[in-house]
Amino acid sequence: MEIVDVVGVVGATASVASFAPQAWKIIRERRTQGLSVVMYLLTCLAFAAWTSFGILRGEWALIVPNTICLLLAGFILWMIVLPQRKVEDVSKTLDPSS
What we know:
The chain is mostly helical and about 100 residues long.
């Protein structure tokens, strides 16, 4: 594996991993106060653009991690815009133990 591939794998892994803790925190705490709708809208737009770019270029190294990041950021955005009661319902469904 070349250094450029290693750097790409590290970057893709870090990008995907960066959204998981926030999504899990929302589920566990059942709240989204303090999170910016605009920031997550822009983040989703960026990941959608990178995914589209990857599709147009046929580059799986762009498609896969950016699609996963888009799904995670989209979930967070969705939870931000939901009414609090629905956030609690979704959280209970995904983590009934909390």
